[in-house]
């Protein structure tokens, strides 16, 4: 169900992301439509500007044509005027008449020239105004073009980012979809398994209900008949019952006690160092005891400080006894923590020691302030240490009161109610943090005091080293108390929540006496359980067990295969018994043959001996030579072969071979041969059985592998279909985005082409206007 809820949550997240992407896509579509509308309006403006430019160009063409006509007319008039001057020299008469005509014509020409000049001025003014308007339009269009280019670049960047985002989201969605499909398939399988299990569990539940009903009736009858009273109803009797053993709680509590013991040991060493170095400091400053007698107050103070170990060491011993009392087998609560009382008493004795030395310490600081070596700054530091020592003793009093309260349940349970345990633990944590803060201030003030005392003219090296030692002990004390405070505050929940550990259905232990009785009952119960336990048989070695486990995992034989192996082994045993009988008969026959052979050997050996005796009597010299050769050369073995094998016999001239030893030799040879053959036979049978079992296991493995291969091929087909479908979807989305991008790019290209055309037309207009202005200036 949790997996289904996760899937639903993921589907909801994907749907929200998809809706966001659709909304963003709609916004982009609106932006594209607005850009298209702006481009259409710009196209219309460009058309209007083209029309106005064409009109201006036509006017310019007409003006240039009129200017050309006027220039030709002026040239003709100048030519006529030159002809008339040449003609006037020839005849004055004709000159007079022509002068009248020329004056009339000059007046007409002057009027025409005046009109043309006025018209040319008016055209120049119009051309200048048109040029200025054209420049303004060109500047506006250029600014508009830059704005549009920046907008287009921004839109292109947005489109690119959105395409990347969409591709990433599509890839993520595809991977999530594949994962979800795999999860859905696994969940469907798990659901099927769960249904089958639920059906089985329902059946088992019905059977159990029926069985438990019958057992409940029997147990109720037994309880009514045999049990006189129920001790769990009253807290007094229930406190005597042994609770369930919480080993984890006990181990955790022992671990915490070990850590607390280590912290207390650090604290004890730091306190010892602090008191001893303070004693040395009192004997050195402000008056050195080696050169002069110190005040009686400081003498008494150093005497009390010398006794610090007898008050500080018991703290470590009390914590050690408390740690040893917390074991894995006990039940540890405040009612059973008897050793906590001893630790609180040790802390009370140390508190009495602090109260005893506090007035002497304060008076010693005041006496140091009154000395002539003490400066104003040093006096201020001494007064700060004066206040810190008072605060330190007050913190120890607080800690003693709270720890004595925690020790009350083990001695006087009515002194502290269970409801106040949490309050006491929290106050201990706050007191420890306050203790840490006081020690921080003490170390800071003492370091300042040590630096000021170094500047005193009568400061010796012994004083400087003592100050350094005191400062290091104070720093160690602050670090140790900081560790204790953090340790207690971190484990405060465990201390407060683990107090309900006790008998079943019981809220609390009534008294320490009941807790002690419960612990005695627990020891008796443990001893009884140990007596019931029987010693287990020797287990298989670990390496053999691993090897057997591998064999068992590799082999997948069923009961039928094992039965077949047993049947085959029985048949082989029967065959071996038949062969055994056969070989027994063969052995009897061999014995008979052996006896015959022995008789033959006896006869042959007796004949050989008689021949050797005769030879010795006839040839004594030859015997002497033979003795020399036999003494020089070692005994040579004589090999005799028969049906039973090859036997080696060493010939001795003095002793004949013993018949019984040969029989034993032959018998041992036969027995060794039979044992060797039987061992070879058994080894071959075991190998054949092992190979047969391996073949069966491999065949079953092969069938399982084929089934898994078929299932994997089906899953691969489904996965390939899903991949192809997702690829098609991806291609369609890519095509749609590519089409949109191509449309936008075409639109931008068309806008750029129109703008380039406008720029070219504007440049041509500028060139023509410049040429016309030059021509007009020349005229």
The helix content is over 70%
Q: What is the rounded distance between the termini?
A: 100 Å
SSE string: HHHHHHHHHHHHHHHEEH
- What is the overall silhouette? flat
- Share in β-strands: under 5%
SSE-based structural type:
mainly alpha
Biggest sheet strand order reads 1-2
Rg is 61 Å
Report the uncertain regions.
503-508, 615-657
Mean pLDDT: 75
Helical segment count: 16
> What is the makeup of the main sheet?
2 strands, antiparallel
> What's the count of strands?
2
Pfam families: KLRAQ, PPP1R21_C, PPP1R21_helical
Protein name: Protein phosphatase 1 regulatory subunit 21
Subcellular location: Early endosome
InterPro entries: PPP1R21, PPP1R21_C, PPP1R21_N, PPP1R21_six_helix
Account of the protein in words:
The protein is an all-alpha fold. Helix content is 84%, strand content 2%. It contains 16 helices and two strands. The protein has helices at residues 2-90, 92-226, 235-238, 247-284, 296-305, 309-325, 339-370, 376-407, 421-454, 461-490, 492-497, 512-532, 542-554, 559-618, 620-632, 659-778; strands at residues 637-642, 645-650. The protein has a two-stranded antiparallel ribbon with strand order 1-2. Strand 1 and strand 2 form a beta hairpin. 11% of the residues are buried.
Fold topology:
Elements: H1 2-90, H2 92-226, H3 235-238, H4 247-284, H5 296-305, H6 309-325, H7 339-370, H8 376-407, H9 421-454, H10 461-490, H11 492-497, H12 512-532, H13 542-554, H14 559-618, H15 620-632, E1 637-642, E2 645-650, H16 659-778
Antiparallel strand pairs: 1-2
Helix pairs in contact: 1-2, 1-16, 2-16, 4-5, 4-6, 4-10, 5-7, 6-7, 7-8, 8-9, 9-10, 14-16
């Amino acid at each position: 169900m949790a997996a289904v809820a996760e899937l639903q949550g993921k589907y909801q997240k994907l749907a929200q992301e998809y809706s966001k992407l659709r909304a963003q896509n709609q916004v982009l579509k609106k932006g594209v439509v607005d850009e298209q509308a702006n481009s259409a309006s710009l196209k219309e403006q460009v058309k209007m500007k083209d029309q106005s430019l064409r009109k201006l160009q036509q006017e310019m063409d007409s003006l240039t044509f009129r200017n050309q006509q006027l220039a030709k007319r002026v040239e003709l008039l100048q030519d006529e005027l030159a002809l008339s001057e040449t003609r006037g020299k020839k005849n004055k008469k004709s000159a007079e008449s022509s002068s009248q005509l020329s004056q009339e014509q000059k007046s007409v020409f002057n009027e025409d020239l005046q009109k043309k000049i006025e018209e040319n001025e008016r055209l120049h003014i119009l051309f200048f105004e048109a040029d200025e308007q054209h420049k303004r339009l060109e500047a506006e269009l250029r600014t508009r073009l830059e704005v549009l280019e920046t907008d287009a670049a921004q839109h292109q960047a947005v489109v690119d980012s959105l395409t990347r985002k969409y591709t990433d989201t599509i890839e993520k969605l595809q991977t999530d979809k594949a994962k979800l499909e795999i999860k859905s398939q696994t969940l469907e399988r798990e659901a099927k398994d769960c249904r089958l299990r639920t059906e089985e569990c329902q059946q088992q539940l019905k059977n159990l209900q029926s069985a438990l009903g019958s057992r409940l009736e029997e147990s109720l009858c037994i309880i009514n008949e045999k049990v006189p009273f129920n001790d769990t109803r009253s807290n007094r009797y229930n406190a005597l019952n042994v609770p369930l053993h919480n080993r984890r709680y006990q181990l955790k509590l022992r671990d915490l006690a070990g850590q607390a013991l280590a912290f207390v040991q650090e604290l004890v060493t730091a306190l010892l160092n602090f008191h001893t170095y303070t004693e040395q400091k009192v004997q050195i400053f402000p008056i050195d005891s080696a050169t002069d007698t110190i005040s009686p107050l400081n003498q008494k103070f150093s005497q009390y400080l010398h006794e610090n170990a007898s008050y500080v060491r018991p703290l470590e011993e009390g914590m050690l006894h408390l740690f040893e009392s917390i074991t894995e087998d006990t039940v540890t609560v405040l009612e059973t923590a008897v050793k906590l009382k001893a630790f609180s008493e040790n802390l009370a004795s140390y508190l009495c020691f602090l109260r005893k030395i506090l007035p002497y310490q304060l008076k010693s600081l005041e006496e140091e302030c009154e000395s002539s070596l003490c400066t104003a700054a040093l006096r201020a530091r001494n007064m700060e240490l004066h206040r810190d020592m008072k605060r330190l003793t007050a913190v120890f009093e607080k800690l003693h009161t709270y720890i004595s309260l925690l020790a009350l349940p083990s001695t006087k349970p009515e002194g502290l109610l269970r409801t106040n345990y949490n309050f006491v633990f929290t106050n201990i944590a706050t007191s420890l943090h306050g203790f840490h803060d006081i020690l921080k201030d003490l170390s800071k003030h003492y370091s300042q005091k040590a630096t000021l005392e170094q500047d005193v003219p009568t400061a010796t090296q012994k004083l400087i080293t003592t100050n350094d030692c005191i400062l290091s002990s104070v720093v160690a004390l602050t670090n140790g108390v900081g560790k204790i405070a953090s340790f207690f505050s971190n484990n405060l929940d465990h201390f407060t929540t683990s107090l309900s550990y006790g008998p079943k259905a019981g809220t609390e232990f009534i008294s320490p006496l009941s807790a002690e009785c419960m612990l005695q009952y627990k020891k008796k119960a443990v001893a009884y359980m140990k007596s019931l336990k029987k010693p287990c048989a020797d287990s298989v070695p670990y390496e053999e067990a691993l090897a057997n486990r591998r064999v068992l995992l590799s082999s997948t034989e069923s009961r039928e295969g094992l039965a077949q192996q047993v049947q085959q082994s029985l048949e082989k045993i029967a065959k071996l018994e038949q062969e055994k009988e056969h070989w027994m008969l063969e052995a009897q026959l061999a014995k008979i043959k052996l006896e015959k052979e022995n008789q033959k050997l006896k006869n042959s050996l007796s004949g050989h001996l008689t021949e050797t005796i005769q030879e010795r009597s006839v040839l004594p010299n030859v015997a002497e030579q033979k003795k020399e050769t036999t003494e020089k050369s070692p005994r040579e073995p004589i090999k005799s072969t028969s049906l039973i094998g090859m036997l080696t016999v060493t010939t001795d001239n003095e002793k004949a071979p013993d018949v019984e030893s040969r029989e034993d030799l032959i018998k041992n040879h036969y027995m060794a041969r039979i044992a060797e053959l039987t061992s070879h036979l058994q080894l071959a049978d075991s190998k054949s059985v092992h190979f047969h079992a391996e073949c069966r296991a491999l065949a079953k493995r092969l069938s399982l592998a084929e089934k898994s291969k078929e299932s994997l091929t089906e899953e691969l087909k489904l996965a390939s279909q899903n991949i192809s479908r997702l690829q098609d979807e991806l291609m369609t989305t890519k095509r749609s985005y590519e089409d949109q991008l191509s449309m936008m790019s075409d639109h931008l290209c068309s806008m750029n082409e129109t703008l380039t055309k406008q720029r070219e037309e504007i440049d041509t207009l500028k060139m023509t206007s410049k040429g016309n202005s030059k021509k007009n200036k020349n005229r």
